[in-house]
Amino acid sequence: MMFKYCALPVCFFVAAAFLHAGETVLFDASKDFHRLSSESGAKIAKGDGKAVVSYEGEFGENSGIAISGNWDLSGFSSLKFYFDSEPSKEIPLRIVIQNSKVDWSGKNGYLSMGAYANSPSVLMKLAFVSPEKNEVAEMLSDRKKMRGNPFSMSESNIDLKNVSKIRLYVRNPSPDMKWSLKKIVASTGGGVPERPAWFDIPKEKFFPFIDKYGQFKHKEWKDKIHSDADLQAAIKTENAYLEKYGGAADRDKWGGWEKGPKLSASGRFRVEKINGKWWMVDPDGRLFWSHGAVRVTPSSGETPLDGRKFFFEYLPPEGDALGQFYHTHDELLRPYYVKRDIKETYDFSAANIFRKYGDNWLEKYADICHKRFKSWGLNTIANSSDKRIFMMRRTPYIDRFEIKSPELSGSEGYWWAFRDPFDPKFRENVRKNLEERRDEISDPWCIGIFVDNELEWGKPNSHAVWALLSPADCVAKKVFVSVLKNKYGEIENLNEVWGANFLSWDELLNRRAEPPKGSYDDCVAFSEKIIEEYFKVIRSEIKSADPHILYMGCRFAGTPKKNPNVMYICAKYCDAISYNIYRDVLDALALPPGIDKPIIIGEFHFGALDRGKFHTGLVPKLSQEDRAQSYYKYVESALKHPNVIGTHWHQFSDQATTGRFDGENFQVGFTDICDTPYWETVEKVREIGYKMYDVRSGEEK
């Protein structure tokens, strides 16, 4: 078993005291308190044998403690952190060890992991890091094609012989949080993790390294598929589970709380605040909390083949029945492949589903998906899912589309640039997307619509700056220049305020450059107009298509702290605010002052490396058991949050072992590339799913 996630803050200085054989104390708060330093405004106080960390006054986004030093941790197998377990509230920590030089964007020079400060102790296993480079590792090192590979097994690399800092911090802490660290102990117990056998396989024997099912060839793990007979055996195992667990007893046909209060039945989903908590209400008037998964599709395991066919043990000929999976793809994600000029792909997940279910494989797979949702305590097929599955109208669903219209060419975004909402083509494209979903918009099984995903919102003045960086025919730029002309009259008046030297309004329109500092206030004001127009047009079109469909927001990537104005504008137009939040729990989640809206969590996940995958995803865990418990804790924290009305796991099935269009190859599914459930996680999904209404209502025994 190979782990590459480690974590720990704090400090190793001086000589260490020995405890049990193979254990070394790296930090003891009763002796080494002077070695601690504060990060991002955290307050540190000396307690009885502990360092007490609290948050008062001004503090930053990642606030905690750190210790600098010079340590060789290569001979240790784990680190153990001892906390004061008094706090009853979950305190999610991020633990980081790092080298003196860190490339945060390239994921080099550090290892990080999540933990809970109210646990008596937390064990962090140190990962085995290849001490030398080799030809095969170099061939697989391009993170744009595979985020993790058999030699990195992580999203980051660190030299464990030269650790210079250990940090513990809370992301977005709340003022009431307080936690205490007592001690950190390094251990050689169990020995240094075993060197993986494939590290020493020569290139000519290493390749191909992916078997015909899309799995890593050079490692074994629980539930790995070795033959089509194994796929058939998996069907029998799962059928027995589905027969045993047919679904929670207190649900109506929508997945609402049948034994809970009965409100008026509108025939559609809606949001409503009841006794201080936000809820959805299902079409029959029952309270509903959305517990779901993203990308319920047979095509989660599509992977690029361009220049990589030698990776794969078997790729079928075009005329073969399995050859059809060169041509299957996910409609929502297809533009991302096109944008990157990816020519050839193969859909391993769909091919395995075909092998598993045979004739009418898609219909059988769709049927099993709905059965799984009911059995596992889930009630929402979330966005980016296959329409052929959710339009069976057996499980409520939420769809999503992305606007494709002229952009503000000065904008940046990980996925797409920001679209110009003043351009008539913006409204036309929203209307076109809604028209294509006419059968969904009026469907009582459809909860609502997300529009766009993880846009870049910049700073308070960014949208106006992006407009000024755009060409003269940009509609938003024309509107901005017109607004400025009406305000200042003569260009000389604007020059005086902005500190500029434009000769005419036409020069301002045609110039594509960053404006001077004096433009800030005007740019902030017009940025707000752009953002307002964005949300206003979308809401107008959605409600014109059907006044009862819910506008579920734009799926913020975390909370847009650099531009708080966007939250106040969003809250005016969206029926719910949607966040993709990759954290351990949601205890610190808070809306800006003055906003009280329902929140939907559009994405979260956890992953581990003990089942043949090369990357854990965005929130790493040590094992499937740890991952499963993390799921339970996250959803439980969401159920206890008065604003949160649902959580959607990203994603239903694992990504391809060799990566999708952007290299993501995360172990984040409820099922693997061969459609086999991760039973440890499924059990915890079901456990919290079956009692979620009791937890939400405060009636949990």
Task: Give a description of the structure.
With 701 residues, this protein is an alpha/beta fold. It has three domains: 23-206, Jelly Rolls, CATH 2.60.120.260; 228-383 and 562-697, Glycosidases (TIM Barrel, Alpha-Beta Barrel); 462-526. Helix content is 27%, strand content 19%. The chain has 19 helices and 25 strands. The strands form six sheets. Strands 1, 3, 4, 6, 9 and 11 form a six-stranded antiparallel beta sheet that branches. The protein has a six-stranded parallel beta sheet with strand order 18-15-25-24-23-22, covered by helices on one side. A five-stranded antiparallel beta sheet has the order 2-5-10-7-8, with no helix packed on it. Strand 13 (277-281) and strand 14 (287-288) form a beta hairpin. Helix 4 packs across helix 6 (348-357) and helix 15 (520-545) runs parallel beside helix 16. The chain is globular, with a radius of gyration of 27 Å. Mean pLDDT is 90; it is low at 1-19.
Radius of gyration: 27 Å
Based on the coordinates given, report the CATH architecture of the largest domain: Alpha-Beta Barrel
Chain-averaged pLDDT: 90
User: Which CATH class of the largest domain is shown?
Assistant: Alpha Beta
Helix content: 25-40%
The main β sheet shows up as: 6 strands, antiparallel
β-strand number? 25
Q: How much β-strand is present in the residues?
A: 15-25%
Q: Alpha-carbon distance between the termini?
A: 38 Å
- The residue ranges in which pLDDT falls below 50 over 5 or more consecutive positions are 1-19
- The CATH superfamily of the largest domain is identified as Glycosidases
State the shape.
globular
Number of domains: 3
Overall structural class, as computed from helix and strand content, comes to alpha/beta
What fold name goes in the CATH topology slot of the largest domain?
TIM Barrel
DSSP helix count? 19
